[in-house]
Design a protein that fits this description.
111 residues
Length: 111
């Protein structure tokens, strides 16, 4: 129940703290470096290279530390806040829970 409360706070009142966002760049870079060695990541890159440039497939790619840091902290934070303001829409969100509690208790915890 406590974990669910903390998790829901992220969506109800996200903290877009500039220092925290900038600190996540290292975590993103580490994950990107790991993913580049994965065969499935490499196969997806081949698929993207063959996809129509106007396809929604072209709208998202992972970045690394270099691409995320290139404009500086303020630009990165501004871009994230802009994306959040433009796309954050709670009515489009759904929640899924898996647990040992009976369904009525799980539903009560998320409403």
């Amino acid at each position: 129940e406590e974990g669910l409360k903390r998790f829901s706070d992220f969506f109800g009142a996200p903290n877009l703290n500039a220092d925290a966002i900038w600190g996540e760049v290292n975590a993103v870079n580490s994950e990107h470096s790991k993913n580049r060695q994965s065969l499935s990541w490499q196969m997806s890159r081949v698929m993207l290279s063959l996809a129509n440039p106007d396809s929604p497939l072209q709208w998202f790619h992972t970045g690394d530390g270099k691409t995320l840091r290139q404009g500086g902290k303020e630009e990165l934070v501004g871009a994230i806040r802009h994306y959040f303001d433009k796309n954050y829409c709670p009515p489009r969100m759904n929640v899924v829970t898996i647990g040992l509690d009976p369904l009525p208790i799980q539903l009560a915890n998320v409403t």
